[in-house]
Backbone:
């Protein structure tokens, strides 16, 4: 069917396709709205608010091996528009998903035309739970949805370029490729996938020199994509530090097996139906054994039957296998280590983009010519069913129901995130205690683990709120946020102490002439410490406090006899203090160095 000539029947097909896209977006909006910020999301928002948005330090950042300046920029703009408000990410998720869905619809139309069969592969892409976790997690979606857009759009441009020779498709293709690459390094696969789709399409149509034809007619797109890839490699290697793989053969096998059998395969039938999670982690697929067996049999049956009934489809199955293999290999190499959980592959986000590949593969197989009767066995199991349309409709409905069941189950798990309640509690509690700031501190590990330091510090997490936050490097009253986000009194442990100084009724005299060294009773390792000391001044001013060697912290002081708690980072055997106010002299009577304790802990 000619994709460029739209008949009344074609309009009906496109109308149903458009309706399916709308239904998908409504369902995905519901899923997104029930979620909230999770883990890396708060790192993105915190960095967005605490660093200049257009600086290289912000955009060209090695984020756990990811190079994604466009994702940082998008997160920064959304955070600026709606600081720590989930509505901003929800809108971005739905917009990106709409673009991805329309790009896939365009590609399927270019492959199949406006035939009714187009709705099958489209239905799979739109509703497959394969893409759910990477959609619902905002920071993952900023990687994966642009990749899906790039895969579908550039493949469509490659087909059009080969068909028409119009170079505008090369220009748009390379621009979309460069954009996807700026969001996610995995987009380096986009031109290869586009080349494979264009070549397989010609091959299926019986073209005798498909590879040579696609290489020649699509040369502008491949050449410019190669230039973009080369420049990106230079930039990537200058930003991202290499990480030596820490995987064993046994771990690689386990991750690959789980990622394929328990992760990729069940969503082919709309699974996994069940999800599991620890605390507030991203849910991972936990399919029942029956579904796993049925999915594996269905996949094996699809391969066998299509190879027997269709001509020239072997390359299509190789494309699917190769792409899934690359996804799983990237997961093993990039995420293996002694602390890697075996369920990593069941999170689905490492194979989410394969939903585009499977949908296009199904379209290509459908368009492949049938074998002649003489080439097909008469075994009953391999005969085409006379009521093929009814069977296809039944399979589609069953897949849709299965997928909706999995989507609802995922949403129930994902909605248990404590982030929204924690953030709102912290904001209300800070507003109710404006009298003294809190020492900067890590937030609850239920929200962001300490492995994310320094981005787990409250001053960074709540930086999007600007001056509304109440965190500082010093305070006269020691308080902290408890695990639920309330401001509560705090205590500190004693790791090192400093004796009262040599000057009677003063201790240590501190002036603006230089640092006064206050010896501790033992050495400190490099860390973020809390220092407590009393002081006496004749007027207001500020003191500079540091460990040796370390970075000075300016501490506002009041007139008279007072105390202060200071957060400093450093090591050494002495505390160093000097007046930062010209002419001001202060007395410091000893000091205690330790850590702020969790509520209820004993000092």
Residues:
């Amino acid at each position: 069917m000619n994709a460029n000539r739209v008949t009344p029947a074609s309009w009906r097909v496109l109308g149903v396709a458009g309706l399916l896209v709308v239904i998908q977006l409504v369902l995905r909006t519901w899923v997104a709205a029930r979620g909230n910020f999770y883990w890396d999301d708060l790192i993105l928002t915190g960095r967005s608010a605490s660093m200049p948005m257009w600086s290289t330090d912000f955009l060209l950042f090695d984020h756990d091996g990811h190079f994604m300046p466009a994702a940082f920029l998008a997160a920064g703009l959304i955070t600026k528009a709606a600081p720590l408000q989930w509505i901003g990410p929800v809108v971005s998720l739905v917009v990106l998903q709409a673009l991805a869905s329309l790009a896939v619809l365009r590609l399927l139309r270019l492959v199949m035309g406006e035939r009714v069969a187009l709705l099958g592969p489209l239905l799979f892409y739109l509703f497959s739970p394969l893409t759910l976790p990477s959609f619902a997690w905002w920071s993952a979606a900023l990687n994966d949805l642009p990749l899906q857009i790039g895969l579908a759009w550039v493949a469509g441009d490659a087909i059009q370029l080969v068909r028409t020779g119009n170079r505008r498709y090369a220009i748009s293709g390379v621009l979309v490729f460069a954009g996807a690459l700026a969001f996610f390094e995995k987009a380096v696969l986009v031109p290869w996938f586009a080349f494979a789709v264009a070549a397989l399409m010609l091959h299926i149509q019986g073209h005798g020199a498909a590879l040579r034809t696609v290489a020649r007619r699509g040369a502008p797109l491949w050449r410019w994509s190669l230039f973009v890839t080369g420049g990106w490699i230079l930039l990537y290697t200058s930003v991202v530090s290499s990480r030596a793989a820490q995987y064993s053969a046994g771990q690689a096998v386990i991750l690959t097996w789980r990622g394929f059998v328990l992760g990729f395969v069940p969503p082919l039938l709309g699974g996994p139906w069940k999800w599991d999670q620890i605390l507030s982690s991203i849910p991972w697929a936990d399919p029942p054994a029956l579904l796993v067996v049925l999915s594996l049999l269905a996949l094996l049956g699809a391969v066998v039957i299509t190879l027997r009934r269709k001509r020239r489809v072997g390359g299509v199955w190789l494309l699917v296998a190769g792409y899934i293999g690359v996804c799983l290999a990237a997961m093993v190499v990039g995420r293996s280590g002694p602390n890697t959980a075996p369920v990593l592959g069941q999170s689905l986000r490492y194979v989410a983009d394969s939903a585009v590949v499977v949908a296009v593969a199904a379209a290509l197989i459908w368009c492949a010519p049938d074998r002649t009767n003489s080439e097909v066995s008469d075994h009953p199991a391999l005969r085409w069913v006379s009521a093929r349309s009814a069977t296809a409709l039944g399979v589609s409905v069953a897949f849709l129901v299965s997928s909706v069941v999995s989507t609802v189950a995922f949403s129930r798990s994902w909605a248990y995130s404590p982030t929204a309640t924690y953030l709102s509690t912290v904001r209300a509690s800070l507003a109710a205690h404006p009298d003294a700031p809190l020492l900067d501190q890590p937030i609850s590990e239920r929200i962001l683990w300490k492995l994310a330091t320094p981005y787990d510090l409250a001053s960074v997490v709540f930086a999007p709120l600007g001056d509304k936050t109440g965190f500082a490097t010093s305070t006269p009253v020691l308080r902290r946020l408890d695990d639920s986000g309330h401001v509560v009194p705090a205590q500190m442990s004693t790791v090192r102490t400093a004796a009262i100084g040599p000057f009677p009724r003063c201790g240590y005299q501190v002036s603006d002439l230089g640092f006064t060294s206050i010896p501790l009773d033992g050495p400190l390792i490099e860390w973020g410490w809390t220092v407590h000391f009393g002081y006496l001044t004749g007027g207001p001013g500020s003191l500079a406090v540091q460990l040796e060697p370390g970075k000075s912290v300016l501490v506002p002081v009041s007139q008279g006899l007072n105390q202060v708690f200071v957060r400093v980072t450093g090591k050494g055997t002495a505390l160093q203090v000097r007046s930062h106010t010209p002419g001001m002299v202060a007395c410091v009577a000893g000091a205690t160095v330790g850590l702020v304790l969790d509520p209820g802990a004993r000092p």
